[in-house]
Design goal:
7 strands; seven-stranded mixed sheet; 5 helices; Rossmann fold; alpha/beta; globular
Length: 237
């Protein structure tokens, strides 16, 4: 169930992987990765949930109808997702994208259900591994703070993670919540920032649970309609 490499979306015939897998820097780099890696998705209409400045739109094919919603940045429509509702009718978009957003929301469960509701075909979601790298806080001599999205700053931050979870918990959330909504995971993989040597060490020290520490994020494509189980990266559903 847990592949060792970050392969292209397996329905992408002839789409080569980006060198280095899912390694990118900043929102612009992430948008290029998403557009390239999941190229078969971009047919018809796309709703980008948590779009910020609509960076993804510039990398989608010509003719792809795009709408971006967010509370900040430069969205097409300003939406406060923490109210738990996406203001579109059922099955309004062919594909709904929600990348590095859900962990920032108090009502993560309701918004995930909304992603599936407004999609007519597929939903692309990524969730971070909040455990990844945070063990460094415990090392001798490390700064005694809880990172960018955690802790207790003196001033209320404009944004923060509302949930602290690892990849194993993220996969179970995606699998169970999708099934409850009548959908199934079509594609599941992890982006890795640890070196191959470090991953080997973690795998041998921690066994099957090494993904809880070594993976940086979980990526999933959820298919509505007929069930399609998670498959190895060497073949389609």
């Amino acid at each position: 169930m847990y592949p060792e490499t970050f392969a292209p979306y397996h329905c992408a015939a002839g789409v080569p992987p980006i060198p280095g897998g899912a390694m990118f820097t900043g929102r612009e780099g992430r948008s290029r990765f998403v557009a390239h890696h999941f190229a078969p998705l971009w047919n018809g209409s796309v709703l980008d949930v948590g779009c910020f400045k609509r960076e993804l739109r510039a990398h989608l094919p010509t003719g792809c109808f795009y709408v971006g919603i967010d509370l900040m940045g430069q969205p097409d429509l300003v939406v406060n997702l923490d109210r738990g509702h996406i203001p579109f009718a059922d099955a309004s978009f062919d594909v709904v994208v929600c990348v590095d957003v859900l962990e920032h929301l108090e009502c993560i469960h309701q918004v995930f259900d909304e992603l599936l509701r407004v999609s007519s075909n597929r939903v692309l979601v990524s969730l971070p591994n909040c455990w990844h790298g945070n063990w460094r806080w415990l090392l001798p001599g490390a700064p005694r703070h809880s990172g960018k999205y955690y802790g207790l700053p003196a001033q209320r931050p404009p944004d923060r993670h509302r949930w602290f979870f690892n990849t194993i918990e993220a996969v179970e959330f995606l699998r169970i919540r999708s099934k409850q909504a009548g959908a199934e995971l079509e594609y599941l993989d992890f982006s890795m920032s640890a070196s191959p040597g470090r991953r080997w060490l973690m795998r041998h020290l921690l066994g099957k649970d090494h993904w809880a520490w070594s993976a940086a994020a979980v990526w999933a494509v959820i298919k509505k309609g007929s069930p399609c189980s998670v498959q190895p990266m060497d073949g389609p559903c």
